[in-house]
Known about the structure:
Oligomer: single chain
Number of helices: 18
Distance between the termini: 32 Å
Helix content: over 70%
Strand content: under 5%
Strand order of the largest sheet: 1-2
Number of strands: 4
Order of helices and strands: HHEEHHHHHHHHHHHEEHHHHH
Shape: globular
Amino acid sequence: MFSDHIILKNKKINITIFLIFLTFAIRVPVILAYGDSSLDHEWKHLVGNLILHGQLVYENIDGYLLPNLWMPPLYAYYIYIFSFLGLENENFIFLILLSQALLAAVSVIVFYKISEIFFSKKISVYSSLIFSLFPLHIYSSSQISSINLQVPLILLFIYFFFMIEKSRKNISILIFSLLAGLNILLRVEFQAIFIFSITYLYIFFKIPIKKIFLIIFITLITVSPYLIRNYIIFEKITLAKTFGYNLWKGNHPHAMKNSLVEGSELFDENLKKKSAKIIGGFIILESIPRDINYRFEFNNFFLEQTKKNIKKEPINYLIFYFKKAASFILVDIKSSDPDYYNPLHYLPVLLFGITSLAGVALSNKKSRGFNFLILIFFSYVFIFSFVSILPRYKLIILPLQLLFTNVLFRLIGEKYFQSKNRYK
Length: 424
Protein backbone atom coordinates (compact mmCIF):
# COMPACT_ATOMS: atom_id res chain seq x y z
CA MET A 1 0.00 0.00 0.00
CA PHE A 2 2.87 2.36 0.82
CA SER A 3 4.52 1.59 -2.53
CA ASP A 4 1.23 2.38 -4.33
CA HIS A 5 1.16 5.73 -2.57
CA ILE A 6 4.73 6.46 -3.72
CA ILE A 7 3.89 5.50 -7.31
CA LEU A 8 0.79 7.72 -7.27
CA LYS A 9 2.80 10.62 -5.83
CA ASN A 10 5.51 10.19 -8.48
CA LYS A 11 2.85 10.19 -11.22
CA LYS A 12 1.47 13.49 -9.89
CA ILE A 13 4.95 15.01 -9.85
CA ASN A 14 5.63 13.78 -13.39
CA ILE A 15 2.33 15.22 -14.64
CA THR A 16 3.10 18.55 -12.96
CA ILE A 17 6.60 18.73 -14.45
CA PHE A 18 5.29 17.78 -17.89
CA LEU A 19 2.54 20.43 -17.84
CA ILE A 20 4.95 23.13 -16.63
CA PHE A 21 7.56 22.27 -19.27
CA LEU A 22 5.03 22.01 -22.12
CA THR A 23 3.24 25.23 -21.20
CA PHE A 24 6.47 27.23 -20.92
CA ALA A 25 8.27 25.69 -23.89
CA ILE A 26 5.38 26.17 -26.35
CA ARG A 27 5.25 29.89 -25.51
CA VAL A 28 8.92 30.76 -25.99
CA PRO A 29 8.91 30.58 -29.83
CA VAL A 30 5.59 32.50 -29.90
CA ILE A 31 7.16 35.21 -27.73
CA LEU A 32 10.18 35.37 -30.04
CA ALA A 33 8.00 35.57 -33.15
CA TYR A 34 5.06 37.72 -32.04
CA GLY A 35 6.02 39.20 -28.67
CA ASP A 36 5.66 42.87 -27.84
CA SER A 37 8.91 44.79 -28.11
CA SER A 38 7.99 47.79 -25.97
CA LEU A 39 5.48 49.09 -23.45
CA ASP A 40 2.46 50.69 -25.08
CA HIS A 41 -0.71 52.51 -24.09
CA GLU A 42 -1.42 52.73 -20.35
CA TRP A 43 1.57 50.62 -19.29
CA LYS A 44 4.00 52.92 -21.07
CA HIS A 45 2.74 55.88 -19.04
CA LEU A 46 2.24 54.16 -15.69
CA VAL A 47 5.54 52.27 -15.62
CA GLY A 48 7.44 55.10 -17.30
CA ASN A 49 6.35 57.55 -14.62
CA LEU A 50 7.19 55.05 -11.86
CA ILE A 51 10.71 54.78 -13.27
CA LEU A 52 11.21 58.51 -13.98
CA HIS A 53 9.30 60.15 -11.14
CA GLY A 54 8.73 57.35 -8.61
CA GLN A 55 5.01 58.09 -8.83
CA LEU A 56 2.07 56.09 -10.16
CA VAL A 57 0.95 58.66 -12.73
CA TYR A 58 -1.20 57.93 -15.78
CA GLU A 59 -1.32 61.36 -17.41
CA ASN A 60 0.99 64.29 -17.76
CA ILE A 61 -1.37 67.14 -18.63
CA ASP A 62 0.45 70.34 -19.50
CA GLY A 63 3.28 69.35 -17.17
CA TYR A 64 0.91 68.42 -14.33
CA LEU A 65 1.48 64.83 -13.18
CA LEU A 66 -2.03 63.58 -12.52
CA PRO A 67 -1.93 60.77 -9.92
CA ASN A 68 -3.32 57.54 -11.30
CA LEU A 69 -6.96 56.68 -10.83
CA TRP A 70 -7.31 55.17 -14.30
CA MET A 71 -5.93 51.67 -13.73
CA PRO A 72 -5.64 49.50 -10.61
CA PRO A 73 -1.95 49.39 -9.67
CA LEU A 74 -0.89 45.74 -9.43
CA TYR A 75 0.21 44.95 -12.99
CA ALA A 76 2.04 48.27 -13.32
CA TYR A 77 4.05 47.42 -10.20
CA TYR A 78 4.59 43.88 -11.51
CA ILE A 79 6.27 45.32 -14.62
CA TYR A 80 8.09 47.96 -12.57
CA ILE A 81 9.82 45.28 -10.46
CA PHE A 82 11.70 44.09 -13.56
CA SER A 83 13.12 47.58 -14.10
CA PHE A 84 15.38 47.10 -11.06
CA LEU A 85 17.43 44.61 -13.06
CA GLY A 86 18.68 47.47 -15.24
CA LEU A 87 18.09 45.71 -18.56
CA GLU A 88 17.87 47.49 -21.90
CA ASN A 89 14.40 47.94 -23.36
CA GLU A 90 14.16 44.79 -25.52
CA ASN A 91 15.68 42.52 -22.88
CA PHE A 92 13.46 44.18 -20.25
CA ILE A 93 10.30 43.37 -22.26
CA PHE A 94 11.54 39.88 -23.16
CA LEU A 95 12.06 39.04 -19.48
CA ILE A 96 8.53 40.22 -18.64
CA LEU A 97 7.10 38.03 -21.41
CA LEU A 98 9.08 35.02 -20.19
CA SER A 99 7.73 35.61 -16.69
CA GLN A 100 4.23 35.61 -18.20
CA ALA A 101 4.97 32.23 -19.78
CA LEU A 102 5.81 30.98 -16.27
CA LEU A 103 2.58 32.50 -14.97
CA ALA A 104 0.73 30.58 -17.70
CA ALA A 105 2.39 27.38 -16.43
CA VAL A 106 1.23 28.21 -12.90
CA SER A 107 -2.30 28.74 -14.27
CA VAL A 108 -2.31 25.33 -15.93
CA ILE A 109 -1.11 23.54 -12.78
CA VAL A 110 -3.71 25.26 -10.59
CA PHE A 111 -6.37 24.52 -13.20
CA TYR A 112 -5.33 20.85 -13.08
CA LYS A 113 -5.68 20.80 -9.29
CA ILE A 114 -9.13 22.40 -9.44
CA SER A 115 -10.22 19.93 -12.11
CA GLU A 116 -9.09 17.00 -9.95
CA ILE A 117 -11.53 18.11 -7.24
CA PHE A 118 -14.45 17.25 -9.55
CA PHE A 119 -13.10 14.92 -12.23
CA SER A 120 -10.84 11.93 -12.77
CA LYS A 121 -7.11 12.31 -13.28
CA LYS A 122 -7.48 11.34 -16.94
CA ILE A 123 -10.08 14.02 -17.72
CA SER A 124 -8.11 16.56 -15.69
CA VAL A 125 -4.91 15.91 -17.63
CA TYR A 126 -6.67 16.18 -21.01
CA SER A 127 -8.49 19.39 -20.10
CA SER A 128 -5.25 20.86 -18.69
CA LEU A 129 -3.53 20.09 -21.99
CA ILE A 130 -6.32 21.89 -23.85
CA PHE A 131 -5.94 24.89 -21.52
CA SER A 132 -2.16 24.87 -21.94
CA LEU A 133 -2.34 24.66 -25.74
CA PHE A 134 -5.36 26.91 -26.24
CA PRO A 135 -4.25 29.38 -28.96
CA LEU A 136 -5.55 32.51 -27.21
CA HIS A 137 -3.86 31.44 -23.96
CA ILE A 138 -0.56 30.88 -25.78
CA TYR A 139 -0.71 34.17 -27.66
CA SER A 140 -1.58 36.24 -24.59
CA SER A 141 1.77 35.42 -22.98
CA SER A 142 3.50 37.29 -25.81
CA GLN A 143 1.58 40.50 -25.10
CA ILE A 144 1.99 43.08 -22.33
CA SER A 145 -1.41 42.74 -20.68
CA SER A 146 -2.69 42.40 -17.14
CA ILE A 147 -4.72 39.38 -18.26
CA ASN A 148 -1.53 37.32 -17.88
CA LEU A 149 -1.49 38.08 -14.16
CA GLN A 150 -5.26 37.98 -13.76
CA VAL A 151 -5.75 34.38 -14.93
CA PRO A 152 -3.40 32.72 -12.39
CA LEU A 153 -4.64 34.94 -9.56
CA ILE A 154 -8.29 34.08 -10.27
CA LEU A 155 -7.51 30.35 -10.47
CA LEU A 156 -5.51 30.46 -7.24
CA PHE A 157 -8.39 32.31 -5.58
CA ILE A 158 -10.83 29.59 -6.70
CA TYR A 159 -8.47 26.79 -5.60
CA PHE A 160 -8.06 28.20 -2.09
CA PHE A 161 -11.81 28.81 -1.92
CA PHE A 162 -12.16 25.02 -2.10
CA MET A 163 -9.25 24.53 0.33
CA ILE A 164 -11.17 26.60 2.91
CA GLU A 165 -14.22 24.41 2.39
CA LYS A 166 -12.10 21.24 2.62
CA SER A 167 -9.77 21.94 5.56
CA ARG A 168 -10.97 25.24 7.12
CA LYS A 169 -7.37 25.85 8.19
CA ASN A 170 -6.20 29.38 8.97
CA ILE A 171 -3.39 29.15 6.42
CA SER A 172 -5.96 28.58 3.65
CA ILE A 173 -7.98 31.54 4.91
CA LEU A 174 -4.86 33.72 4.96
CA ILE A 175 -3.79 32.83 1.41
CA PHE A 176 -7.36 33.11 0.10
CA SER A 177 -7.70 36.59 1.62
CA LEU A 178 -4.35 37.78 0.27
CA LEU A 179 -5.33 36.53 -3.19
CA ALA A 180 -8.65 38.37 -2.90
CA GLY A 181 -6.79 41.60 -2.16
CA LEU A 182 -4.36 41.11 -5.04
CA ASN A 183 -7.21 40.40 -7.45
CA ILE A 184 -8.97 43.60 -6.35
CA LEU A 185 -5.74 45.55 -6.90
CA LEU A 186 -5.63 44.11 -10.40
CA ARG A 187 -9.27 44.46 -11.49
CA VAL A 188 -11.80 46.62 -9.67
CA GLU A 189 -14.79 44.44 -10.63
CA PHE A 190 -13.29 41.64 -8.53
CA GLN A 191 -14.83 43.33 -5.50
CA ALA A 192 -18.16 41.88 -6.64
CA ILE A 193 -16.65 38.40 -7.15
CA PHE A 194 -15.17 38.60 -3.65
CA ILE A 195 -18.52 39.53 -2.08
CA PHE A 196 -20.29 36.69 -3.91
CA SER A 197 -17.58 34.24 -2.82
CA ILE A 198 -17.57 34.99 0.90
CA THR A 199 -21.39 35.07 0.91
CA TYR A 200 -21.35 31.62 -0.70
CA LEU A 201 -18.86 30.36 1.90
CA TYR A 202 -21.13 31.54 4.69
CA ILE A 203 -24.48 30.38 3.31
CA PHE A 204 -23.64 27.12 1.56
CA PHE A 205 -20.45 25.91 3.24
CA LYS A 206 -21.42 27.15 6.70
CA ILE A 207 -18.08 28.88 7.32
CA PRO A 208 -18.37 30.62 10.75
CA ILE A 209 -19.06 34.34 10.64
CA LYS A 210 -15.84 35.00 12.62
CA LYS A 211 -13.80 33.49 9.80
CA ILE A 212 -15.74 35.49 7.21
CA PHE A 213 -14.87 38.70 9.07
CA LEU A 214 -11.25 37.52 9.29
CA ILE A 215 -11.21 37.08 5.49
CA ILE A 216 -12.63 40.58 5.02
CA PHE A 217 -10.11 42.04 7.47
CA ILE A 218 -7.06 40.45 5.80
CA THR A 219 -8.34 41.45 2.36
CA LEU A 220 -8.75 45.06 3.52
CA ILE A 221 -5.23 45.01 4.97
CA THR A 222 -3.93 43.82 1.59
CA VAL A 223 -5.56 46.65 -0.38
CA SER A 224 -5.18 49.30 2.35
CA PRO A 225 -1.82 50.78 1.23
CA TYR A 226 -3.38 51.83 -2.08
CA LEU A 227 -6.60 53.00 -0.45
CA ILE A 228 -4.60 55.09 2.04
CA ARG A 229 -2.50 56.53 -0.80
CA ASN A 230 -5.67 57.59 -2.64
CA TYR A 231 -7.25 59.03 0.50
CA ILE A 232 -4.15 61.12 1.21
CA ILE A 233 -4.06 62.44 -2.37
CA PHE A 234 -7.76 62.72 -3.25
CA GLU A 235 -9.40 62.72 0.22
CA LYS A 236 -11.63 59.90 -1.03
CA ILE A 237 -11.56 56.14 -0.50
CA THR A 238 -11.43 54.69 -4.00
CA LEU A 239 -9.44 52.27 -6.15
CA ALA A 240 -10.14 53.73 -9.59
CA LYS A 241 -12.51 56.13 -11.32
CA THR A 242 -13.09 54.59 -14.73
CA PHE A 243 -16.53 53.05 -14.36
CA GLY A 244 -18.32 55.94 -16.08
CA TYR A 245 -15.95 55.94 -19.05
CA ASN A 246 -16.00 52.14 -19.43
CA LEU A 247 -19.78 52.14 -19.25
CA TRP A 248 -19.96 54.90 -21.88
CA LYS A 249 -17.56 53.10 -24.21
CA GLY A 250 -19.45 49.80 -23.88
CA ASN A 251 -22.84 51.47 -24.35
CA HIS A 252 -21.94 54.08 -26.93
CA PRO A 253 -24.86 54.76 -29.36
CA HIS A 254 -22.61 53.82 -32.31
CA ALA A 255 -21.63 50.56 -30.59
CA MET A 256 -25.26 49.73 -29.76
CA LYS A 257 -26.60 50.42 -33.26
CA ASN A 258 -23.84 48.39 -34.90
CA SER A 259 -23.62 45.62 -32.24
CA LEU A 260 -19.97 46.44 -31.52
CA VAL A 261 -19.15 44.38 -28.43
CA GLU A 262 -15.74 46.05 -28.15
CA GLY A 263 -17.44 49.42 -27.76
CA SER A 264 -16.85 52.75 -29.44
CA GLU A 265 -15.14 56.04 -28.65
CA LEU A 266 -16.62 58.19 -31.42
CA PHE A 267 -17.13 61.79 -30.33
CA ASP A 268 -20.67 63.11 -30.26
CA GLU A 269 -21.97 66.66 -29.79
CA ASN A 270 -21.81 66.46 -26.01
CA LEU A 271 -18.13 65.52 -26.12
CA LYS A 272 -17.40 68.31 -28.57
CA LYS A 273 -19.06 70.78 -26.17
CA LYS A 274 -16.59 69.59 -23.53
CA SER A 275 -13.75 70.36 -25.96
CA ALA A 276 -12.83 66.68 -26.11
CA LYS A 277 -9.56 65.80 -27.80
CA ILE A 278 -7.37 62.76 -28.16
CA ILE A 279 -3.85 63.68 -27.03
CA GLY A 280 -1.15 61.03 -26.78
CA GLY A 281 -3.75 58.28 -26.93
CA PHE A 282 -5.88 59.82 -24.15
CA ILE A 283 -9.34 61.34 -24.35
CA ILE A 284 -8.91 64.74 -22.73
CA LEU A 285 -11.86 66.94 -21.75
CA GLU A 286 -10.32 70.40 -21.93
CA SER A 287 -13.29 72.11 -20.28
CA ILE A 288 -12.55 70.26 -17.01
CA PRO A 289 -9.85 71.94 -14.86
CA ARG A 290 -6.54 70.07 -14.70
CA ASP A 291 -6.46 69.53 -10.99
CA ILE A 292 -6.70 66.74 -8.45
CA ASN A 293 -10.43 66.29 -9.14
CA TYR A 294 -10.02 65.94 -12.91
CA ARG A 295 -10.48 62.17 -13.00
CA PHE A 296 -13.61 62.36 -10.81
CA GLU A 297 -15.20 65.00 -13.03
CA PHE A 298 -14.14 63.05 -16.13
CA ASN A 299 -15.76 59.88 -14.80
CA ASN A 300 -18.98 61.67 -13.76
CA PHE A 301 -19.34 63.27 -17.18
CA PHE A 302 -19.22 59.94 -19.00
CA LEU A 303 -21.50 58.30 -16.44
CA GLU A 304 -24.15 60.99 -17.04
CA GLN A 305 -23.78 60.64 -20.81
CA THR A 306 -24.35 56.90 -20.52
CA LYS A 307 -27.49 57.39 -18.43
CA LYS A 308 -28.90 59.83 -21.02
CA ASN A 309 -28.10 57.46 -23.91
CA ILE A 310 -29.76 54.46 -22.22
CA LYS A 311 -32.87 56.45 -21.21
CA LYS A 312 -33.44 57.35 -24.88
CA GLU A 313 -33.52 53.71 -26.06
CA PRO A 314 -33.76 51.39 -23.04
CA ILE A 315 -35.11 48.37 -24.94
CA ASN A 316 -32.38 48.55 -27.61
CA TYR A 317 -29.69 48.81 -24.95
CA LEU A 318 -31.17 45.83 -23.09
CA ILE A 319 -31.05 43.78 -26.30
CA PHE A 320 -27.46 44.97 -26.83
CA TYR A 321 -26.60 43.83 -23.29
CA PHE A 322 -27.70 40.28 -24.08
CA LYS A 323 -25.84 40.40 -27.40
CA LYS A 324 -22.66 41.23 -25.49
CA ALA A 325 -23.31 38.41 -23.03
CA ALA A 326 -23.78 35.91 -25.88
CA SER A 327 -20.65 37.18 -27.61
CA PHE A 328 -18.63 36.86 -24.40
CA ILE A 329 -19.73 33.26 -23.88
CA LEU A 330 -19.56 32.22 -27.53
CA VAL A 331 -17.93 34.39 -30.20
CA ASP A 332 -18.01 38.01 -31.35
CA ILE A 333 -19.44 38.21 -34.88
CA LYS A 334 -18.37 41.85 -35.43
CA SER A 335 -14.89 42.14 -33.97
CA SER A 336 -12.64 44.95 -35.23
CA ASP A 337 -9.53 42.90 -34.44
CA PRO A 338 -8.08 41.70 -37.79
CA ASP A 339 -6.74 38.51 -36.18
CA TYR A 340 -9.96 37.61 -34.38
CA TYR A 341 -11.32 35.50 -37.23
CA ASN A 342 -8.19 33.43 -37.62
CA PRO A 343 -9.59 29.85 -37.43
CA LEU A 344 -7.04 29.01 -34.73
CA HIS A 345 -8.74 31.61 -32.56
CA TYR A 346 -12.46 31.72 -33.21
CA LEU A 347 -13.09 27.99 -33.84
CA PRO A 348 -11.86 26.75 -30.41
CA VAL A 349 -13.47 29.78 -28.73
CA LEU A 350 -16.82 28.96 -30.34
CA LEU A 351 -16.51 25.19 -29.80
CA PHE A 352 -15.79 25.40 -26.08
CA GLY A 353 -18.36 28.14 -25.66
CA ILE A 354 -21.00 25.71 -26.90
CA THR A 355 -19.70 22.67 -24.99
CA SER A 356 -19.45 24.70 -21.77
CA LEU A 357 -23.13 25.63 -21.93
CA ALA A 358 -23.97 21.97 -22.46
CA GLY A 359 -21.79 21.11 -19.46
CA VAL A 360 -23.60 23.65 -17.27
CA ALA A 361 -26.97 22.22 -18.32
CA LEU A 362 -25.86 18.64 -17.61
CA SER A 363 -23.93 19.33 -14.38
CA ASN A 364 -24.96 18.00 -10.99
CA LYS A 365 -27.00 20.85 -9.52
CA LYS A 366 -26.63 19.32 -6.05
CA SER A 367 -22.86 19.91 -6.10
CA ARG A 368 -22.29 23.05 -4.03
CA GLY A 369 -18.70 23.29 -5.27
CA PHE A 370 -19.62 23.10 -8.94
CA ASN A 371 -22.50 25.50 -8.43
CA PHE A 372 -19.96 28.00 -7.09
CA LEU A 373 -18.03 27.77 -10.39
CA ILE A 374 -21.27 28.38 -12.28
CA LEU A 375 -21.97 31.40 -10.05
CA ILE A 376 -18.54 32.89 -10.74
CA PHE A 377 -18.88 32.25 -14.48
CA PHE A 378 -22.23 33.99 -14.83
CA SER A 379 -21.13 36.77 -12.47
CA TYR A 380 -18.28 37.62 -14.85
CA VAL A 381 -20.64 37.45 -17.84
CA PHE A 382 -23.12 39.69 -16.02
CA ILE A 383 -20.46 42.27 -15.08
CA PHE A 384 -18.59 42.47 -18.38
CA SER A 385 -21.76 42.70 -20.45
CA PHE A 386 -22.28 46.20 -19.00
CA VAL A 387 -19.03 47.48 -20.52
CA SER A 388 -16.93 46.91 -23.63
CA ILE A 389 -15.55 43.39 -24.06
CA LEU A 390 -12.10 42.99 -25.61
CA PRO A 391 -11.07 39.63 -27.13
CA ARG A 392 -8.50 38.91 -24.40
CA TYR A 393 -11.18 39.08 -21.70
CA LYS A 394 -12.25 35.62 -22.88
CA LEU A 395 -9.34 34.22 -20.88
CA ILE A 396 -11.09 35.24 -17.65
CA ILE A 397 -13.91 32.74 -18.21
CA LEU A 398 -12.06 30.18 -20.38
CA PRO A 399 -10.83 27.98 -17.48
CA LEU A 400 -14.40 27.79 -16.17
CA GLN A 401 -15.70 26.92 -19.63
CA LEU A 402 -13.18 24.09 -19.88
CA LEU A 403 -14.25 22.78 -16.47
CA PHE A 404 -17.89 22.82 -17.62
CA THR A 405 -16.84 21.01 -20.80
CA ASN A 406 -15.33 18.28 -18.60
CA VAL A 407 -18.88 17.41 -17.54
CA LEU A 408 -19.68 16.69 -21.16
CA PHE A 409 -16.44 14.69 -21.61
CA ARG A 410 -17.27 12.58 -18.57
CA LEU A 411 -20.83 11.82 -19.71
CA ILE A 412 -19.67 10.91 -23.21
CA GLY A 413 -16.98 8.66 -21.73
CA GLU A 414 -19.45 6.93 -19.43
CA LYS A 415 -21.93 6.29 -22.26
CA TYR A 416 -19.14 5.03 -24.53
CA PHE A 417 -17.92 2.48 -21.97
CA GLN A 418 -21.48 1.42 -21.12
CA SER A 419 -22.24 0.69 -24.78
CA LYS A 420 -18.89 -1.05 -25.16
CA ASN A 421 -19.58 -3.31 -22.18
CA ARG A 422 -23.08 -4.04 -23.50
CA TYR A 423 -21.69 -5.58 -26.70
CA LYS A 424 -18.95 -7.66 -25.06
